[in-house]
Design brief:
Layout: H1 4-8, H2 14-17, H3 20-38, E1 49-51, E2 80-83, E3 92-96, E4 110-115, E5 121-123, H4 125-128, E6 135-142, E7 151-157, E8 161-167, E9 170-173, H5 175-178, E10 186-192, E11 201-206, E12 218-221, E13 224-226, E14 236-237, E15 239-243, E16 249-251, H6 253-256, E17 261-262, E18 264-270, E19 279-284, E20 290-294, E21 300-302, E22 323-325, E23 333-335, E24 344-348, E25 354-356, H7 358-361, H8 364-367, E26 372-378, E27 387-392, H9 397-404, E28 414-418, E29 424-426, E30 439-445, E31 454-459, E32 465-469, E33 475-482, E34 494-499, E35 502-507, E36 522-527, E37 531-538, E38 544-551, E39 554-559
Parallel strand pairs: 33-39
Antiparallel strand pairs: 1-32, 2-3, 3-4, 4-5, 6-7, 7-8, 8-9, 10-11, 11-15, 12-13, 14-17, 15-16, 18-19, 19-20, 20-21, 22-23, 23-24, 24-25, 26-27, 27-28, 28-29, 30-31, 31-32, 33-36, 34-35, 34-37, 37-38
């Protein structure tokens, strides 16, 4: 994540700052000049976003625990998960809130907010029974035991914790009993059914080997301490747990072919080769990313060599943070990177290699000055074309000013409007995303149940933000899947919708973004189309369901096998 500092590691000194830092500052000035020259006015359009967190009852603040020591985890922030706590078909919110390093652990480590159904939320943290005792970072929610209730995994430095939903919005800690205890530094997590046995398996991202005792000191000069980056710390291999179907899991990381060391901060599901199986992409921090192809039997082939490496700002692999996937034909994998590196947007070329097409797609110049964590595809204006939401915020204010001039850690989110031809234009400012903050996670959900995706942002050591979407004049369709042979959540299913002559494809997934999870129910923008001509669902089991002539502006629940 830290471009300049980790390359110097713990050896960063005032003497070195007189040598290498001026060259980096000159490069930073060139980067900023290029980015500013590439900016242009975004087109006006209907609708926009309004920040409403306090008004809707979301008063959640993340605590980094920072006291000036600049311990490494303090700069990573945390995520938010959209889930349905109580089975009322309303998207609820779970924020990971961090904690102080000093003294006894107080609080739940999370904030649990129940959707009242009128666009407002009630804090039900105490009643939920969720208590996470470590330094929390991410979360992932899914029904791992197919009982019809969403369960919750929380990650962080010190260990992951699994909470089983026992009904009525209450949870029970089953980490030890389920066999998923982990004492390392875990970050992102993805639930998916790797072997199509109908039960969700768990991929748990791990970052580096760090402790308060091994924390390193890095400085810009004798007076200015900054966060050290990943380079001096040994990598940690992520872990993969196979669901045994009885509420317990078995660690099969080695036999599944996923024991590759990395510094993982983001992971996303995709069907990389069109075989109907959920493959796995892992974004690593300043070491090469990984692509694992699903063989269909619970094992994976490492296809990372197909990823064409684009060197970063400091001559090494770029700092990979959040990641998301556009499932459309001609879509790709978007990755958040360090300032001066720009977004990555990898498309699968005809020769089988994945190459970065961010510049050609119009994503590079506007994203070059910012440090990106959360990335998320969503059709925010319901025109049938996926847009891209980007959460930004620097890791260290002093480092930001040294590298990129008169800036701080706070940065504006970006929103790239999809043009429908594989290119994008920055339209965030005209859509109301003008506030600057230290952005980390981002998730999308129709929080007020009006048919358009609202946005939830987390801030490192700051308040959560809710942006209500005021999209207007377009039609939509929501689809929630219920598996019978496949896993109950339908995770890994591919849904294709045709309306008004346009065909859209989306995968039901967990993970993606940065330490966060969006609403699993799919939301399709239909533009002016008032009717959907066809829906085709390809389930993880291989079964197909087909529906036709569906009126727009409604939410469907489709059970596997109900429309063969």
């Amino acid at each position: 994540m830290f471009g300049a500092v980790p390359s110097l590691g713990a050896r960063l000194t005032a003497g070195m700052s007189r040598g290498r830092w001026p060259r980096l500052l000159a490069l930073a000035a060139a980067v900023c000049a290029a980015a500013c020259a590439g900016r242009g006015p975004a087109p006006e359009r209907a609708g926009g976003f309004e920040e409403v967190a306090a008004a809707v009852g979301v008063r959640v603040t993340h605590t980094s625990g920072a006291t000036g020591r600049k311990w490494y985890p303090e700069t990573f922030g945390s995520g938010v998960c959209v889930t349905d706590l109580d089975g009322d078909d309303r998207p609820d919110l779970i924020f990971v809130t961090g904690r102080s390093w000093d003294g006894e652990v107080t609080g739940a480590g999370v904030a649990v907010l129940r959707n009242r159904g009128d666009g407002t939320f009630a804090d039900v943290t105490a009643a939920s029974g969720i208590r996470y005792p470590f330094y929390g970072m991410g979360c992932a929610a899914a029904d791992y035991d197919n009982d019809g209730r969403d369960d919750l995994l929380v990650t962080g430095d010190g260990g992951a914790a699994l909470f089983h939903n026992v009904g009525g919005g209450r949870f029970e800690d089953v980490t030890a009993r389920a066999g998923v205890a982990d004492a390392g530094w875990s970050t992102c997590a993805v639930w998916f059914d790797a072997d199509a046995d109908g039960f969700l398996d768990l991929f748990l991202c791990r970052y580096v080997q760090w402790s308060a005792e091994t924390d390193l000191t890095c400085r810009l000069d004798p007076q200015t301490k900054v966060f050290c980056g990943p380079d001096p710390y040994p990598p940690s291999a992520s872990r993969f747990f196979h669901n045994l179907g009885d509420g317990t899991f078995q660690d099969v990381t080695e036999s599944a072919g996923l024991a590759k060391p990395g510094k993982a901060l983001g992971a996303a599901l995709l069907d990389a080769d069109g075989d109907g199986r959920a493959d796995l992409f892992v974004a690593n921090d300043q070491v090469p990313n990984s692509l694992f192809r699903n063989r269909g039997d619970g094992t994976f082939a490492d296809d990372s060599a197909a990823l064409v490496l684009t060197p970063g700002r400091f001559g090494m692999a770029r700092a990979g943070m959040g990641v998301d996937v556009d499932d459309e034909a001609g879509g790709g994998i978007v990755i958040g990177h360090f300032s001066g590196e720009g977004l990555g947007f990898f498309r699968h070329d005809a020769d089988g290699r994945w190459r970065d097409h961010a510049r050609a797609a119009g994503l590079f110049d506007a994203s070059l000055p910012v440090l990106t964590f959360g990335v998320l595809f969503a059709d925010v204006d319901l025109d049938g074309r996926l847009d891209l939401v980007v959460a930004n915020g620097h890791v260290d204010a002093d480092l930001a000013r040294s590298l990129d001039g008169d800036v701080g850690a706070e940065e504006r989110p970006l929103l790239f409007r999809g043009r429908g031809d594989g290119t994008y234009v920055d339209a965030g400012a005209t859509m109301g995303l003008t506030a600057r903050f230290v952005g980390r996670g981002v998730a999308a959900a129709d929080l007020d149940l009006d048919g358009d995706p609202d946005l939830v942002f987390t801030e490192n050591n700051g308040p959560a933000r809710i942006y209500r979407n005021h999209a207007s004049g377009a039609h939509w369709l929501g689809i929630r899947l219920v598996g019978t042979t496949s896993n109950r959540d339908g995770i890994g299913a591919m849904v294709t919708v045709t309306a008004g002559g346009r065909t859209q494809t989306r995968m039901v997934r967990t993970g993606s973004s940065y330490l966060s999870q969006s609403e699993r129910a799919l939301l399709f923008g239909l533009g002016p189309a008032e009717n959907v001509e066809q829906i085709v669902i390809r389930w993880p089991s291989g079964r197909l369901d087909r529906l036709g002539s569906i009126p727009a502006d409604q939410r469907l629940t489709v059970s596997e096998g109900s429309h063969p």
